[in-house]
């Protein structure tokens, strides 16, 4: 049996008629940017996240960058970012003109370690940017406590965690604002690039909207030197068709992950730890193995596709050489980059597919075995 790392087929089959109807609705109206689909999706997604405002934008990177700019963060400022995340989190800070300051994660949950934040603060620190990585919420009690102690705003990177919660409260509703990505591979994916900012602060939402619309709220009147980053009507219509399924997408991924957690047993494969306060949505199911390449090859020989998230940590990327962080300076992120392996995870995985992944991992030959 072949199990892909990710497949959109089950969801596309289920939503085929709805997605085609969404296209027809927009096409018949001949109105493609800034219309009723966008407005309807924004209302629905704000309600889903449990906040008052949502602003559709072009992608997840822009969502975070626009929030930081709307908060007045720019040159000379620093923002706390986890050392183990997708590069977009750090780039959002860079694009705002500020400097990302990397803080190590807790290895077994992969999420930002709140106990390490304070040592990284300086008088230039203007915000905390935690990431709910792989679909599990950060320890938001601890992150918010540090933020409150130092009077710093929290901006959540929810690009991998649509619908995840911490103590029953959905991510995106803890900080001053949050950025979401609807890149096709994310748990709520558009049929192209798309993103959103959610916030409980209408003034902040309005500023984000202006910044993403050439700095203008009123046509041809420009308050800021803004960007062009808007959610188009087609993508909004597709997202609106998919949104009602999002709770089921999360539940389906949890069912697959629960089987992995129960049934995978191998002395060399370390499973992810789920905090009791967290209800993850499993964007990625990440395990760690010292002999990653051997495990990867063994799984491939069993027909199981895998991924690496992420093989090169941000501070070791050529583009971030200016951070001056040599090999060894962020050992936890580096260890994760060497040992992390992502197992297949997508909506509509069959019990047979999940079973094939479990069996393949459990049959990984021990070191030195022939
Ligand atoms: C995908 C992702 C982003 C960026 O989203 P895009 O829509 O690709 O711009 C930001 N942060 C994290 C953690 C992501 O996984």
Question: Please, could you describe this protein's structure?
Answer:
The protein is α/β, with parallel strands linked by helices and 370 residues long. It is 36% helix and 14% strand. The strands form 5 sheets. The chain has a 4-stranded mixed sheet with strand order 1-9-8-5, with helices on both faces. Strands 3-2-4 form a 3-stranded parallel sheet, with helices on one face. The chain has a 3-stranded antiparallel sheet with strand order 7-6-12, with no helix packed on it. β6 (165-166) and β7 form a beta hairpin. 48% of the residues are buried. It binds pyridoxal-5'-phosphate.
The percent range for helix content is 25-40%
Instruction: Give, in spatial order, the strands making up the sheet with the most strands.
Output: 1-9-8-5
Q: Characterize the biggest β-sheet.
A: 4 strands, mixed
Shape: globular
Q: What is the residue-averaged pLDDT?
A: 97
How far the N terminus sits from the C terminus, by CA atoms, comes to 23 Å
State the secondary-structure class.
alpha/beta
**Tally of helical segments:** 11
What is Rg?
21 Å
Sequence of secondary-structure elements:
HHEHEHEEHEEEEEHEEHHEEHHEH
Poorly predicted ranges (pLDDT <50, ≥5 residues)?
none
Give the total of beta strands. Answer: 14
